[in-house]
Amino acid sequence: MTLQVALSHHFKGFTLDVAFDAPKGVTVLFGPSGSGKTTLVNAVAGLLRPDKGRIVADDWVLLDTQSRRNLAPHKRRLGYIFQEGRLFPHLSVRQNLLYGRWFAPRGSQDESFDHVVELLGIGPLLTRRPGALSGGEKQRVAIGRALLSAPKLILADEPLAALDEARKAEILPYFERLRDEVSVPILYVSHSSAEVARLATTVVALKDGRVAACGTPADVLGDVAAVGVRGAASVLEARVVAHHADGLTELSTATGALWLPRIADLHGTTIRVRIAAQEVMLSRDAPKGLSALNILHGTIADIRLGDGPGAMVTLALGQERLSARITRRSAQAMGLAIGQPCHAIIKSVAVAPEDIGTGSMKERTQ
Amino acid sequence: MMGADWANWLGPAEWQAVRLSIRVSFWATLVSLPLGIFVAYVLARWDFWGKQVLNGLVHLPLILPPVVTGYLLLVTFGRRGSAGQVLEAWFGIILSFRWTGAAVAAAVMAFPLMVRAIRLAIEAVDPKLEAAASTLGASRLWVFVTVTLPLILPGVIAGAILAFAKAMGEFGATITFVSNIPGQTQTIPSAIYAFLQVPGGEEAAGRLVIVAIVIAMSALLVSEFVARRVARLVGGS
C-alpha cells in the first residue's frame, strides 16, 4: 500500500504546505521541532482538519477537501503511537491492548494477540495497570495496542522522544522488527538522524513547513541543505563478520573492513551504520601511525563549501557515499578536487550503539 | 430490640417525613444525573454561541431566592402552567402538590451543584486520551462510554451525593411549588418548620434535626469513601 499525502494548512505565522508519497516500509518525517511534523501526522489521523488537502491510501480516500470528504478518525483504521503513550489509566494492560480490536471490523486481517505480546515482550505485564509501568514498558504496550487494532497504516509521533537513552535503545529494535515483520506502512515522526538511519525506508525531510528533501536515508542525511551541517551523516551498509576478543566487532563494507565497538548478537546479519560527517577525517596519502582503526579508500565525488568556515566533502566508496565535514582551509591546503583518490578515517568510538541498526536499505526500497 | 427502639424514637409523622425526604432526594438525583452529565460535558467540551446563557441558566437556582425558583416552577409546571398542562394532557403526569413535584423542585435546586462537580471532573480528563481512543476506532459515543465516563466516575459520584444532600435540605422552592402536605410533600425541612409552628413541637423538630445531621454526615462520608475507592480503581496502580 502507498499513502499519498498533499496538504496545506495555515496557522498564525506558520504555513504547512507539503506533498509526498509514503511507500511500503517506514517513512520517516524528519525535521526540527516546529517544522510541522506532528501537524502532518495529526492531519493523516484525522485529529486536525487542514485547510486544503488530499490523503489517499491506495484507492481509499481519507481526506479530500475538494470533494468535501473527511473521514472521522475512528473510521480511518490507523494505529497511532503517541509520544506520551496515552494508555488508558483505568484499564489493565490486556484491556488496553484489546481496546482497538474491539472496534475493528470482524474478520479483518489482524495480528494474533499472542504474537504481538511475544514480539514486544509484554507477557508479564498483562494484568498490570499503566500507572505501574516504566516509560519503556508503557511505550511497548502502546505499540502493541496500535498493532492489535488491525490498522491499515501505523503512525508514530516521536515515540522515543520522552524516553531516556537506555529506554530508547530498548524500544528501537521493536520498531525495526515491526518494519521487517509487519506489512502495513509506517509513518514515523522523528528529529533524530540516528533513528532515521536505523529505521527509514524513505525519508521526508521537513523544514519550515515544506518538504526539503525526500529519498533514501543515505541520500537525505547526506543532503546538507535539508538536514544542516551538524545533522549531515552517511549511512553505510555492512555485514557482521566476527566479534573479536578485544571487544571490537569486525564489519565488512563494500570498500573495506570497519572495526566498531562490539555489536550484540548480530553475527552474519546486514546492518546499517550511521557515521556523522563531523566524525570523519580525510587524508590524501594512506595514513600511518594513527590510532584510528577505520580507514576507507574512495574517490572524491563532491565538494561543497559552506557559508561559514566549513566544507562538506563526499567520497564515493563503490556504490556508497561517505561525507566528511572539514574546514575550507583544510580543503584548500590539501588541494582537494573532484575525482581525486582519498582516504577517510573514522574513529571506532565515534559510532555509538544508537547509530547501528539492523536491516539492509536496498531490499526495502524495492 | 434496637430496631424497635429506633422505630419508637421517631413518631409516625416524623418517620413519614424521613421516608419521603429520602424518596424525593433519591429520585431527584437519579433522574437528573444523566442530564447533569450531558450538560456538564457540553459546558466543558463544546464551544458554541450561547454557551454563557446555558451556563447562567444552569446556575440560576443557586443564586435566585429559592422562593422565586419555586414560584417559577409553580407558574410553569402547575396545573394551569403551560408545561404542566402538556404533561397532564399527554402523559397524565401531575406535579403540583405531589411528591413528584417535590422531587422536581429538589432536582432543579441541586442541579447546579451536580453540574459543577461533574464539569470539573470532565475538565480534568486529558482530551488526548479521548483522541487516542478515536484513532483506535471508537466513535464519539463509545469514547465517552469507555474512556471519559470511567475517568470522571469519582466526580460523578461526588456530584450525585452533593445533589442528594442538597435535595434532602431543600425547603424554599419545595414549599412554594408543592406546599407542605404531610405524606405528600412534607419533607424533613418542611416537617421541622411545621413542628416549630405548633406549641410543644420542639421535641419532634429536634429529633428530625438530628436525623438530618446524621443523613448529611453519612452522605459526606460515603461519598468520600466511594470517590477514593473509584479514584484508585481508575487512576490505576
UniProtKB/TrEMBL annotation, chain A:
GO terms for cellular component: membrane. Residues 289-355 form the Mop domain. Keywords: ATP-binding, Cell inner membrane, Cell membrane, Membrane, Molybdenum, Nucleotide-binding, Translocase, Transport. The keyword ATP-binding applies. Residues 1-233 form the ABC transporter domain. The keyword Transport applies. NCBIfam families: modC_ABC (TIGR02142). This is Molybdenum ABC transporter ATP-binding protein. The lineage of its organism: Bacteria, Pseudomonadati, Pseudomonadota, Alphaproteobacteria, Rhodobacterales.
